[in-house]
Design brief:
Structural class: alpha+beta
Number of domains: 3
Distance between the termini: 10 Å
Order of helices and strands: EEEHEEHHEHHHHHH
């Protein structure tokens, strides 16, 4: 079962007179990066929130927004009146002393840190458990979104690997033709240089065997087919998303395809190798989005 690294999950719940909403957005990233946005009340519980998110979401860049509002739609925040009055008194005194205009003082004061804060000084365990429950449901929805996208990714990857296997099956006829051409070319070269009567048959056969061994693609074809079969096997594993394993297998596939190209000595085989490389490149692009 493949899981996409990108996705979206949202959940809403209630606790007493509060409405809790959680949104989780996931993007591609080689490492796990969690960005949490919430009210200051939950700072002391941030580590626990991160632990829950990391357990459920695995890899990727995660943007998590937690909002808590009262049932009438107002945010659960309040005004620090004592701090506001102090700032207002000092700003007013300085404005009068320096003969500065008093306009726009209110918006400026509201932007001062800690002027606006949460309405409660601390969060109780019951409310935090309610928040965790909504977070988990949002993460479950994210995972389902990733699973649906993963199905589409898996279908495309399976098709690409089967295309490589199909191209691999086209090689044998060109291999045989290549050997015949090489044998004729080598014989003609030796006859031109040494004369037909002076051609050493045993030496000629030794040279033929040397080039046949050098040009033989059997090992590369067998290994590439094994890698492709294993790739599909990992794709169909229902117990995990094998993104890392598939990346490693694709690298091995690339090595065998490159060796096939290096030993081709034939335009038709080179054409097939180029097509294989094109399919493999598309596979790698898709794997960048797989968990």
């Amino acid at each position: 079962m493949l899981l996409s690294m990108t996705g979206y999950g949202r959940a809403v719940g209630t606790h007493k007179d509060k409405v809790i909403s959680v949104e989780v957005r996931a993007l591609n990233a080689k490492v796990t990066d969690v960005k949490l946005r919430f009210l200051g009340d939950y700072k002391e519980r941030e580590l626990e929130l991160r632990r829950v998110i990391l357990e459920h979401a695995e890899r990727g860049k995660l943007d998590v927004l937690i909002e808590v509002q009262s049932t009438d739609g107002a945010a659960a925040v309040g005004l620090n009146e004592a701090l506001f009055r102090g700032y207002c008194r000092e700003v007013k005194r300085l404005a009068e002393e320096l003969q500065l205009p008093m306009s726009d003082i209110l918006p400026a004061l509201l932007r001062i840190p800690n002027i606006i804060n949460s309405s409660s000084a601390e969060i109780d365990d019951e409310e935090f458990e309610a928040i965790l429950s909504v977070v988990r449901r949002a993460l479950d929805n994210l995972r389902e979104y990733r699973r649906q996208e993963g199905k589409a990714l898996g279908a495309d990857l399976r098709m690409r690997v089967k295309n490589i296997l199909s191209l691999l099956s086209e090689l044998p006829p060109y291999e045989q033709e290549r050997f015949v051409r090489m044998r004729e070319r080598l014989r003609n070269n030796l006859e031109e240089n040494f004369g037909k009567d002076n051609l050493d048959a045993n030496r000629f056969e030794q040279e033929i065997l040397y080039y046949l061994e050098k040009m033989d693609l059997t090992e590369e074809k067998v290994r590439l087919e094994q890698h492709c079969r294993y790739f599909i096997e990992q794709l169909e594993d229902p117990n995990r998303s094998a993104g890392r394993s598939l990346n490693f297998i694709s690298q091995e596939m690339g090595r065998e395809i490159n060796t096939l190209g290096a030993k081709a000595y034939d335009a038709n085989i080179q054409r097939i190798v180029v097509q294989m490389k094109d399919e493999l490149e598309k596979i790698k692009e898709q794997l960048a989005n797989v968990l």
